[in-house]
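Query form — protein Glycosyltransferase RgtA/B/C/D-like domain-containing protein

QUESTION: What is the three-dimensional structure of this chain?
INPUT:
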Amino acid sequence: MTSADFPPRRFPQGYLPLTLLILVVYLLYLPFSGYERLVYDAELYWFISIYFHKAGSLSLLHFHDGMRGYVYPLLLLPARVAQYYSGLPPIWFARVLGAATAAGVFGWTGPALWQVATGAAQPPTWPRRLAFAALGFAFWREHFNFTLTDFPALGALGLGLWLLCRHPGRWGWALLAGVCLAAAANMRPVYLAAAPFGLALQWLRLPAGRGRGPQRGAVAAALLGAALVLYPQLRINQRHFGQTTPLVLVQDVNIAPGTLYRAKLQRGLVFQKYETTIDPAYPWPVLFFLDPEGRAVLRAEGIGQFGSYGHYLRFARRRPLLLLRVYARHLFNGLDLQYPTPYLRQVYVSTWGLAALNYTVWFGAGLVLWLRRHRRRRALSWSGGLLLAALLAPCLLVLPTDIECRYLLPLHLLLYAVLCFGWPAAWRPARRQWALLGAIYVGFLLLCFAASASVQARLELGGRSLLGHRLPPPTPL
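ANSWER: The structure tokens for Glycosyltransferase RgtA/B/C/D-like domain-containing protein are given below.
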């Protein structure tokens, strides 16, 4: 392994103009997006950011939420204080923070990671980066009204990986990278799966011939940076919950320690997908899309819940084909984005246009990979593979669970990047190729619509069509 994987060129500063443009676009759009207040988890994150203040003093150790880590509420604290003294609605501050996050992720993090992964001397061109940002806006724009951890955590993960790639062996940058990776895992515990690949990336990125000392030092610096973030969480857990762990406990009065993921494994067999809504016409705040096959098998085996991970593994050995089908459905449903918001204002509304754009992105990304298939082995280095693994490992962990589209956020953005940054500029297909591609595209689109329609029809309290029509509830088992 040598430094040739990521050529040591001076990193260009060409990202700022487009990043600022994205910031302005979101600042102008979000106030008119139709939301008036924070709700559900977004409101809760905003509320618990005041936990650091108690009896006239500020301390990290005052934080006492067992379900969520302290990092994101701490980042919200300055805005929370400003909102308190100004009296302005909390969602105003959430929009400013959201616009900054969107600008960072779509204007810099995504393109910059692509640049280091491919070893390019220059950033992707303006039109390509603009297309990437436009897809992000089309699919995720209303998420940035809310104080949720999905994009901040992914941004922290991306920054940490970028630092490891661009500054190998520099202990100060490695320390900062460790801070970023640990912050991402504290905000979204599933991102802990990226940590081993990040450390391996730091180990392998050092130029050959420098011995093991610099490698050990760089990895130690990254671990120290992570410890700086994780130690307060350890103290919080010890003080308030009697648990000696630096990881987020993910527990509350209804969820015992260490049982949430196991419960989500069981729910992953009951539900194909779920969404959250604020539609007053829908009876529940959560939309559950039933999985008849998984429910039938659980009922046949008399499984109400998995008592241990061993229990789930034994079930997997008995039903490997079932689980493969379940995971495939979860992958499709996790990528099948129907709304650009985490909180649906209206359940029964036409979504075929956004769905068609989404399927077109899949088709385009697949076409790019096909066109570049002979270059992939040669182009993807060990470092590039580790970078890819760090981004996708969290997605693999959530596939067995009850899925929500934002759980696969790294994969969504990777598909946008492949299409926008990887499209071969010199490709000029013949007319017959266009005709063949058109036929394949139409067939692919029809298959995707059919698969999506079958899932939407399984909405528990009344199925929905992609045209927004309400359908009868699915037949009970």
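ADDITIONAL NOTE: Confidence is low (pLDDT under 50) at residues 1-12.
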